[in-house]
Design goal:
4 helices; alpha+beta; 100 residues; four-stranded antiparallel sheet
Length: 100
C-alpha cells in the first residue's frame, strides 16, 4: 500500500476548470486499485501554523501498489483532459509515503 498526499495550488480564477478536471480524475482512481481518502479545501482559520503557501486543496490517496499509481497517471481517458489541469493548477506537491 502506498499513500500519495498532494498539495494543490490553483491559478486564481481557474477554480471551475480545476473542478472539471477533478470530476474526471477522481473517479478514475478506483479503476487502478486506488481510494481517495481525504479531499480537503482548507480555509484561513483552519491553519495553526504554516511556512509554505497555503494550498487550495489537499488530497490523500492510497493505491495498492506503486504500479497502480503509475497506471492511473497513464490512463488514456484522464490524459485527454490534462489540458484542464494545466490550465487551472499553478503547481502541486506530491508526497509519497507508506503506512508505518
Amino acid at each position: 500500500m502506498i499513500f500519495i498526499t498532494q498539495l494543490i495550488y490553483i491559478i486564481s480564477g481557474q477554480e471551475k476548470v480545476f473542478d472539471e478536471f477533478e470530476n474526471i480524475a477522481i473517479p478514475t482512481i478506483i479503476k487502478y486499485n486506488g481510494r481517495l481518502l481525504l479531499r480537503i479545501r482548507p480555509t484561513d482559520n483552519t491553519y495553526i501554523e504554516h511556512h509554505i503557501d497555503k494550498p487550495y486543496e489537499i488530497h490523500l490517496v492510497e493505491f495498492d501498489t506503486l504500479q497502480d499509481f503509475e497506471n492511473f497517471k497513464q490512463d488514456e481517458e484522464r490524459k485527454k483532459f490534462l489540458h484542464l489541469k494545466e490550465q487551472s493548477i499553478k503547481t502541486s506537491i506530491l508526497i509519497q509515503g507508506i503506512k508505518l
